Amino acid sequence: MKSEVAKSIDEYIGRFPKDVQDILQKVRSIIQKEAPEASEAISYAMPTFVQNGNLVHFAAYAKHIGFYALPSGNLAFQKEISKYKNGKGSIQFPLDEPIPYTLIKKIVKFRVSENLEKQKKKTQKKKTTNSKKPILKKS
């Protein structure tokens, strides 16, 4: 039987042993502090923070915490994440090693500014596009 997807981050975190819950709560609080305007969601069955698009996701597994900062987050911190197993947009922090909370904080800050910049460009593009529309005169 497939386990049901959690409906909230609280429910998601509550499904894990106390030691893992503590780590997940700390990750969550870092994200909340660095992205106070972000909203919480469950996306891809994982805790997700959204601010002008997906910001970051995180999840717990048997032997690691998965942190998903999208490809751009990983590219910006290639050197720092090189000691962890990582992919295009994922990083695995082993549960048997100290979790790099300072690195998580830096990545979240980067993603917030990146998403804000994207939103600014999008807004500017809309204004430019709207200002180029011809004005129709009534006859």
TrEMBL record:
Signal peptide: none annotated. Residues 21-112 form the YdhG-like domain. InterPro entries: YdhG-like. Pfam families: DUF1801. Residues 117-139 are annotated as: Disordered. Residues 119-139 have a biased composition (Basic residues). This is YdhG-like domain-containing protein. It comes from Leptospira bourretii.
